[in-house]
Design brief:
mainly alpha; 17 helices; globular
Length: 327
Amino acid sequence: MLAASLLWGTTGTAATFAPDVGPLAVGAVAMGLGGLLQALIAAPQIRRHASRLRDRRGTVLLGAVSVAVYPLAFYSSMHLAGVAVGTVVSIGTAPLASSLIERVVDGRRLTRRWMLAAALGLLGTALLCIAEAAHATDGTGRTSMTGTLLGIGLGLVAAATYALYSWAAHRLITRQIPSRAAMGAVFGLGGLLLVPVLLATGAPLLASWSNAAVGAYMALVPMLAGYVLFGWGLAHVPASTATTLSLLEPAVAAVLAVLVVGELLPAAGWMGITLVIACLAVLTTPTPTPTRHPRGQTRNNSVDHDSSPPGKAAGAVPAGEHRTRHS
C-alpha cells in the first residue's frame, strides 16, 4: 500500500510536464488506459471467475463508475487548486469516507489506533491544505480563490469515489475473488467508461512526444503498477486502512511540488507532512503478539469465563464443541 502511494504521489508533478493537456485528458488516459491494461493482464483470472463476478455485478458496477469519476475529479482538482491542495483534499479525506462506508454497510467497528492515526493524518492534510490555500491569491484575488474552492469541492468528490472503489474491490476480494480478477474487472470496466472522454479530449496527448510520454508514464507506472500493488494490499487490509495508508501520497506530492514544480510550502505545510508521517507510523507499527496460554489454564477476564451459562464450570467445554472452540 505504501509503495502504491509513493507511485501515486508522482502523478500531479508528472502532469505538469504536459501543460497543454487538460485535466480530463490526463485523468482519462491514466485511469482509462491503465484500467484496460489491468483487465488485459488479468483476463485469464477474470474468465475463470466470471460467474462470481456476475453474481457481484452490482459491486463491480459501483466500483467501475467510481473508477471513471475519480480521475476526472482528481486531476481537475489539482488543475484548479494546485498539485498539493488537490492531492491533499482528494486523498486526505478519503479515510473518513471509507470508514463511514464500512461502518454503515459492513458494521465494522473502528479501533482507537485507527482513529488516532486518522486524526493525525487529517490534521496534517488540513495544515497542508491551509498552507497552500494561503498562497492561492496571486493578484487576481477572487478568481484564484474561487478556483481553489472549486478545486477543493472536486477533491471531495474524488475522495468519495476513491473510497467507494476501494471498498468495492476489497468486498470482491473478501468474497473469494482473487485480487487480480477483482481489480481487473473493476478497473477494466471503469477504463471502458473513460474511453469516450479520452477520445473527446485526448488529442493534445498526440501533439508532441513529451505529452505522449507523460500519458504513457501515467498509465503504466502510477496506474498499472500502482494499482496492482493496491490490489495485493487490499487482499490483506481493510479499505479504511488502505485509504489511511495512502495518506503518504499527498505528502509525496507536496514535496515533489516544492522540489520539482517550484511551488512554495510554508512552515505549516511542512508541519502537516510531519503529522502525516506520524499517522503512518502509528498505523504501521506492529502490535505486540498476545501471549498464548496453555490449554486449560485459567485466564483473567476470559470471554469463556464471562459467558459461561449458570451451572457450568468456566472452562468446561461440552463434548463435540472442544475442537470448534479451540480451532
